[in-house]
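Minimal example, chain plus fe (iii) ion.
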Amino acid sequence: MTHAMNMTGGANATLWRHARLATLAGAAGWGLVERGALVTEGQAIAWVGAEAELPAALRERIASEHDLGGALVTPGLVDAHTHLVYAGRRAAEFELRLQGASYEEIARAGGGIRSTVAATRAADDETLFALAAARARSLLAEGVTAVEVKSGYGLSEAHEARCLRVARRLGAELPLTVRTTCLAAHALPPEFEGRPDDYIAAVCDWLPRLHAQGLVDAVDAFCDRIGFTAAQTRRVFEAARALGLPVKLHAEQLSDQGGAALAAEYGALSCDHLEWLGEAGVAAMARAGTVAVLLPGAFYFLRETKLPPVAALRASGVPIAVATDHNPGSSPVLSPLLMLNMACTFFQLTPEEALRGMTVNGARALGLADRGTLAAGQRADFVAWDVEHPNELAYWFGRNPCRRVVQGGSQVFAAVEVKP
Ligand code: NIG
Ligand code: FE
């Protein structure tokens, strides 16, 4: 229950009290604070600590307070890899895969990404927005306060622009931070059949105009046998670099193309998937400070068996993030917490690594330095959970313990309390 009390004039801070905090503020450890509290001012955290230690001067600035009822509070979740904007569904393809067809075979036969491109092009703007907004709301209800949204199901200048505009509109109309990524180099559209180099030239030509419309925060590509070669990816990265845009890469998902090393050469924010990542790729990412974004949903749904080299990433100090990769083909998941669970069960991340992967390291994969931990000066994005310890966020599955979501200092979601 929220008890908002308005006190004396001049004060504008909000106290969020009666919580156990997992601040994740240090380089390691949960950063647990028992009987903790936060003070927010505007969109930022002004103070974090044990409630008994709240400075008197700060107390005077408090205009309202909320009792969090002993909940566990963590930073807001950052889902650093999604493809939320699309129409259509691919359940029939799932059935085909269960009968033995591979993801790659389906893609080569013109299904896969291309079938979603056809459905997306055929949908009007309002439908695309409504579909994406419903997905974003599901993520929000499980504690997501920032999300990356890729294009990549438009594959023409006009349709990529449209999908990126829908992504921007999500950020404007929903209480979520949205970072957009242009993934025009996702697959070869039918009109460029047999002409992948011409398509890459077209993508490089679109990028400055998409960027000039304020639609692009980062640039991504799918570097794989059914995507684009390393040489083609390099051309996309050159175009991004010329615009001063950061790059990311779908790298070594189905095979090792040396994509991670290439992305690292361009100072990539992140390389994502990485099941086939080799030693050279790990070393290059470590040198560049590139985040490894692991996507256990795609690993699971494609029934992969090759594991990403987690021990090598850890040993080399590569920051590890975990994301949903929500998309209709390889990861139709809308539960970030299930991804924490799978990151532990499949990839043997510790529950702490998994949570860091969807908070502080997820933020880093998006180039967002102002969030991912609970500390003074950080953006006031946090979540109150009905759990005793943060290790439970990776433990339960099929249960949503999210009770409240606070975005930029405002409560934007509260679970309905059902009392017997
Ligand atoms: O991240 N690998 C490429 N892109 C997506 C899947 C896209 C699709 O199948 O529609 C991914 O897994
Ligand atoms: Fe993806």
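The two ends are 16 Å apart (CA to CA). Residues 112-113, 116, 222, 250, 253, 298, 325, 327-331 surround N-(iminomethyl)-L-glutamic acid (ligand 1) (CB under 6 Å).
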